[in-house]
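Exercise 3.2. Students should predict the tertiary structure of the chain below and write it as structure tokens, then compare their answer with the key that follows.

Predict this chain's 3D structure.
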Amino acid sequence: MSIDSGLGSAGIALAWVAFFVASVGGHIALTLQTRAAPLPHSLAEAARFAVAPWTLLCLVCWAASTVLWVTLLDKHGLLRASSVSSLRYVLIAVAAAVVLREQFGARDVAGAALIAAGVWLVAVR
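Answer key:
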């Protein structure tokens, strides 16, 4: 029995949205943690870093994205699912610009457009 049994098209679309939100959220949370505290250089610092709120949020987000990934992988297969999941790189770049105020220049836009075009070529049937 597959994980997505009972999910229709709308459920799979919602799983993709949740996957992207969780994946991007994890990256943003971990970045915020590395900005809030220096990277650990001792076991005690590593323990504090590991249980810091942003780190814990990152881990929760990535755990959720892993569960969603299994569902999507079961539904679409590796080639299509991994291709579509590459859109997270575009979304991470956009989130970095919007949430973290990082610079997003013309080369970044061009790279994001190429990724999106590649996903479209593989995923659209």
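Discussion points: The chain has one domain: 9-123. Residues 9-36 form the longest helix (28 residues).
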